[in-house]
């Protein structure tokens, strides 16, 4: 083999890159997120839980478009109670602990919804109420 | 015909994964066994190919140059086009790999009345190849969020950058559009440019179709067919694969297994195909040698070892025979001692 002194380190770097997940995680899969159930004691979501896990972002997007573009400010009823089609006034009403619910999964899956650039998290909303 | 065949081959792969993953128990084959097998073949094959190349001797000093080589001091040396030191070789190689300089020089030849041939600069191949390769790289780096736990900060940066337009939810990525446009152009080029079409083989079309289908299935999975695509659940499998104890929690949609199976096919195909240009570009003597043949003699490694043999040495070796045959010698034989 020629040029051993460059070929072998080159190959070693390549193999290290490809196997990054093996040694980065240290052969441990790490903790699995356990999103907290709504503290207000409700038992149902706006759709079955399995569907929510797959599709909640699609649903939010549809709601946003229908409310803001087609002025479809209707409400949904969950377990007999009416909720407006909204992010803060529906989802966060029940899932009031964003940090232990939404963020738990999102940190694990590395998603950082930009919604909170404008929308208030329940914690922020509470602190706003106090100052006004 | 050749391109139709590559479509057929990919459709067959899709069907195998689609139908196969529906059989109870098979998700473990498609989600665990095949990925491990594929990555082993990929790594083993890749290293094998590179070692084979490294074992091949380079008989001549064959850098490609397109600029003035280093010469007398008052002649301006073109450092990038005729690299003379290792640093210059590295610089040229880095620019080639990061910006595809050789494709930037691509020309388009055309016959006109006369007959007259014209060569025109054609940058399309360069720009679309760049779009395609960088999108591909970005997608692979972003996919690391599925395999690394905790997810490193740079993955989050790349995601934010790639989703800068903040369209929809899940947000659209620029690289998704980029890879489709890129592969689309590279494929269309092979079909519409008659000269390129003439030299294109099944092995040129197949990887393009395969990568296109991988991207399409990924995009379908992310934006359109989300049923049973719970990323938290999928990540438990993918991180589990990296931790060497994979588990499949609840059901995962067939589209995921199709995506994954096609990727496995790509990984297995990789070391035995033109895709090895990924490693090959580093190994190609036309790019990794220094243009210093005026100072350093390039020795062909397979030359036999021939030691210099002076006339004096030759005569020393054969003097007796030469004297016997009556050939004149410069140094006489030592005077013979009588044996009595
Ligand atoms: C050659 C390698 C691969 C390519 C080119 C590729 C391409 C893509 C593309 C274009 C997408 C659309 C969304 C995005 O850009 O993130 C996607 C999504 C996805 N890919 Fe891949 N992929 C590859 C390998 C893999 C592997 C090895 C896995 C898992 C084992 C995987 C799992 C997924 C999943 C789960 C999604 C959906 C992501 C989401 O919903 O956000 N991919 N892929």
UniProtKB/TrEMBL annotation, chain A:
Alphabetical UniProt keywords: Membrane, Transmembrane, Transmembrane helix
InterPro entries to which the protein is assigned, alphabetical: DsrJ, Multihaem_cyt_sf
SUPFAM superfamilies in the record: Multiheme cytochromes (SSF48695)
Chain ranges passing through the membrane: 7-24
Protein name as it appears in the record: Putative sulfite reductase-associated electron transfer protein DsrJ
Organism: Desulfopila aestuarii DSM 18488
UniProtKB/TrEMBL annotation, chain B:
Main location: membrane
Domain of life of the organism encoding this protein: Bacteria
Membrane topology field: Multi-pass membrane protein
Biological processes per GO annotation: anaerobic electron transport chain
UniProt-annotated location(s): Cell membrane
MF terms in GO: electron transfer activity; heme binding; nitrate reductase activity
Residue span, NarG-like domain: 121-278
The entry's keywords: Cell membrane, Electron transport, Membrane, Oxidoreductase, Transmembrane, Transmembrane helix, Transport
A single cellular component GO annotation: plasma membrane
Annotated Pfam families: Nitrate_red_gam
Spans through the membrane: 29-51, 124-144, 164-187, 208-225, 252-272
Protein name (database record): Putative sulfite reductase-associated electron transfer protein DsrM
UniProt source species: Desulfopila aestuarii DSM 18488
Biological classification of the source: Bacteria, Pseudomonadati, Thermodesulfobacteriota, Desulfobulbia, Desulfobulbales
